[in-house]
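dude i think i finally got it to work??
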Amino acid sequence: YARVERATGKTALLTASASVGVLREAQYPRCAFTMAEILLSLTIIGVVAAITLPSLTGNINERTWNTQRKALYARFSQAIALMPALNGYGTLTEGNESKSAVDTAAETFVTEGLSKVLKINNICDADHLEDCGIPSTITPQNNAAVVNLSSIKTLVGLNNMFNGSYSDSAGRLQVYSQINTKAAGIETQNGESILVYYNPNCISQDISSNFLQPYMCANFMYDLNGSKGPNTFGKDIGVITALYPTDSVVVAPLPLAIDRNGRTSHEEASKFCREKDSESRLPNKEELASLFYNKPLTGMLVEDGQAGYWSSSRVSTDKVYVVGFDGGKVFIDTRGASREVRCIKR
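look at this
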């Protein structure tokens, strides 16, 4: 017990707990945050959250898209490997291709070939691609102009170098075997929306051709989350390409945005890509071909491509393949030459 003198001069006995409370109140006066202080704290927290959350959400999205992209590539690689050949779908007898057969080549490739080895929920013709979740507009890389779906519904629409001929920088007519086909759309069981381009006359890699176009059998532009945003190439949108009708090679290059101006040697180009990102490297010949087929989405310029882009595919110790984007022509150069650089992730 403790004695406490009151104002009246009387004393009273308090229990130990009560006396401690009185003494504590005397030593430590009560205090609290004011409303202004609480509001200021909440404002600071809100500002910090507004700054950090978009970056955090973006990183999560990037990791999710990367995982989905690799899983989709694995499924397509396995499916393509199960198909006996990739050419010949949608055509009639040799030398008697009709317009209707050509126009439905991509659909026939999907219904009679791809759907047998890959789980597909929905197939759409070129006039109803939106029904398969294909976005109406796509944002390319490198600040290139937005691509409208209406303009890329055919092979030639995707890349005007698929027209069977072109004039090179010297005005010479370059001709190769190629027919234009309409695209088709599919929705996979996993929810991806995919635009399918098909070349029924694609050729094997052991047939000599200086042009990349005839080697492409099927090209797939995928959207990992359908028509939902951001509908941007390199994020939720990417490409998978199958080259050569037998012993096919399937690639899914993810180009990094250009941040280097000017040409360089092959050795410096390889070093630049390795230093840019731990997963970055120069594309091989087939990956560079895929980038050429889809150049409206990658923002890779014809002006740069006239000099040619370096590949990692070597012909010999000191010579490698180079691809010119002004016409899709493949040539060989020494590693000490000066060419354009574009790095990719696989």
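The mean pLDDT is 83.
im so relieved honestly
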